[in-house]
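#onboarding

Welcome to the new folks! Below is a worked example of what a typical request in this channel looks like: someone posts a single protein sequence, and someone else replies with the predicted structure as tokens. Don't worry about understanding the tokens yet, we'll cover that in week two.

Example request:
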Amino acid sequence: MKVRIPNSGGPGNMNQMLKQAQKMQADMAALQEDLENREYTATSGGGMVEVTVDGKHLIKSIKINPDAVDPDDAEMLEDLITVAVNEAIGNAIKTSEEEMGAITGGLNMPGLF
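Example response:
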């Protein structure tokens, strides 16, 4: 007994869907590589601390203005670094989600990026 799927369009349509899926996969792989090679920078404390991360969320650099270093208030510097790191990583994540979403048409595809 053969099962018919209504509106399946036959084998030609299935081939077209497969080609589209393969193109989406290739586009996503290329974008993922591009995103991983990008750098995202954020500052805090009015530019006193600048942090740069890559698309893999690894810290590439931290720049600290000497005026931000107060031996009597290390906690303030720690807070400035934390804020800048979190903002830079957040920028990387947001960019990745937006650009991948443009390729997938907004489909939620967990584990792909």
